[in-house]
């Protein structure tokens, strides 16, 4: 008998699907969140047969269970923990731990890709093209490589995963992986995936207007409340507001929070680690403990949301040699302009700030972080110029 304890996200369920393909009726699969794993491991030790081969994928055990697994292993028990989270690398100290963030060719791994390799290497699963394609889609989604590669199939696989129950998803996928030559969605799925994509776009657009910015532990965070589409939301908000180091997504009902960044200079698994959580450099999470609640909820509740930069301007443009006009919620006005060949300056009304900047982007980040500004629409820009002209005439 085999037992698999795995994560309840696409990558975790991908492992469940592979286990059922490999072991058929001889495997029991249990899906859980990170927090639910401890109970599952305890249940295994209390109730399951000692000969059962235990796999744990895409999740980390706590210290107590880490010791129990080692004792179990020393007593001849069969156990493997396969994971790709950086915060789980210490499990490699055990014979039963196999944690790899990158494969031998330097490609980012996922639990599903590691488990597939394990099963194939141990002759427990016959490799086929369709299964390999499915595994690669899961890997690209989980590592977010799909975006760079423009692989929307991977993104859509995750969308389908959220549209149906885990059981239904398993059943659909297992059927497809057993009978198809190549992986694809059927016509009905394609239709609902299109509808879901539109729904998600509208959701994200709304959330763009709810984001507040705050400074936590020396980094600038964008804080938003959301229950759905966390990865997509974190990515879109990160791109909309690149002056923020990361996006913190609060799920109040679940008392959890997620961290996402699009930047290479930030490691959000460290941020999450500060609050007792973990994850990857670009995506991590933690429970909403008291400290996190204070920093991200209490301290930010009164803050006005950020506003998006005007997008359809013809005159008030970024990098413009005539200057770019910004405003904040206190109605303060800032003009960012090139001072000379090398420096950019900022006027706050008609007073130049002491600081100068070596690039437009650097100056804009400064403005956005310290004054919460957005690029105003052409109309406001033109009014500003007219006032300037009037004022200069008055002073003649
Ligand atoms: Mn994963």
Describe this structure in words.
By secondary structure, the chain is α/β, with parallel strands linked by helices. It has three domains: 2-180, 3-Layer(aba) Sandwich (Rossmann fold), CATH 3.40.50; 207-300, Diaminopimelate Epimerase, Chain A, domain 1 (Roll); 324-394, no CATH class. Helices cover 43% and strands 19% of the residues. The chain contains 14 helices and 16 strands. It has helices at 10-23, 37-47, 63-74, 111-121, 129-143, 145-149, 152-163, 166-179, 187-207, 230-240, 268-274, 290-297, 360-371, 378-394, and strands at residues 2-7, 27-32, 53-57, 79-83, 97-99, 212-216, 219-225, 246-251, 256-260, 278-279, 283-287, 324-327, 333-338, 344-348, 351-352, 374-375. The strands form three sheets. A six-stranded mixed sheet has the order 6-7-8-9-11-10. A five-stranded parallel sheet has the order 2-1-3-4-5, with helices on both faces. A hairpin with a 5-residue loop joins strand 13 and strand 14 (344-348). The model has no long low-confidence stretch (mean pLDDT 95). Bound molecules: manganese (II) ion (MN). Manganese (II) ion binds at residues 11, 58, 84, 110-111, 142. Manganese (II) ion binds next to loops.
